[in-house]
Structure formats: C-alpha cells, structure tokens
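thread: overnight batch results

M.L. [08:02]
morning all. the overnight job finished for the chain we discussed friday. pasting input first so we're all looking at the same thing
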Amino acid sequence: MIYLELFLTFLMIGAFTFGGGYAMLPLMQEQVALRWGDAIPTETITNFIAVSESTPGPFAVNMATYIGAEMGGLFGAFCATLGVVLPSFVIILIVARCYDKFKESSVVKGCMTGLKPAVVGLIAGAIVSVAVGVFFPAGFSFEALKTVGFYLSAAIFAVMLVLALKKVHPIIIILISAVAGIAIGYAGLW
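M.L. [08:03]
and the structure it wrote out:
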C-alpha cells in the first residue's frame, strides 16, 4: 500500500538524517529513486527541489509533501509529511525535557562536535547532486559544455551567487532567478 510505504520511507528519512532539509536531500533522492524511480525521474526531483525551496515552509516538509502528493494524492502528501516530521517532533520533545541535565556533558558536546562536519558534508553532497542535475542533465560529458543551456545555467548561478554574497534579500534572488528562467524558457534558449 502506497500510503504506508510513503509514511515509513519518510519516517526513516526523518529519523536518520540530522541538520535539516538539505542534509536530508541525499537520502531522500536515493530513496525516491530506489522506490519510485520509474514514476519520479531524477529531473523531476530537481524540479521538486526548486519548487520546495521557492515555497514557504521547511524544505524537507515541502519535499515530502510534494513527493507524497505525486505518489498518493492528498492522503499520500499527509502520510509523507507526517512521516518526515514525526521523528524530529519526538526527538525535540525528548531533548527539551533532558537538555538542562546533559548540556555540560562531554559526551553530548563531543556528539555535537562530530555531527557538525557530517552535516556540512551531507549538504555539500546535496549541492553537488543538484548541480550535476542542473548543469549536466543528460550525464557528464564534454558535449554538455557546448550547449547554450549549460552557459545560461552557469550565468544565472554566477549572478545569484554574487547577489547572495552581497546579501541581497533571498526573496529578491528567487524572483530574479524565476524571471530569468521564464524569459530564457520563453525565448526557447533552454
């Protein structure tokens, strides 16, 4: 049954990833490809990421809801969202209850110190995975470097990176990139 599969898959994703939505992305991509790869191709996952990032709310919840809706409609969205949120909810309740007792523990401090680089690595892996999907949608080849789409994607990325480094508000960056993408798509350059 798809609803139970959605719930259990996203429950596992929510329980075994730390560091927020971007840290969940590699496991989410792997599980979606493994379980529903025929129904949701890699290019569609990249589109889900763009939509989930552009909509209000936590990234992981948006992704789970989107994938759940794609696979099982409204109730599928509910099951996937509940699955991804439940582990964090339970863990936060437990941590909030026990934090004052253990915040000075060397084991807890060591655990937090060890988790930080792992989370950075997971986020970097997600960035590379998404970048490969955007810049090399048909797989890596030197032929991709000769396409207009590659250079347009690189130009949009460079402009958005400069704007982000100049601390332009993220909403403005999202709006500019959306307008650029629409204009380029409308002109038939992609």
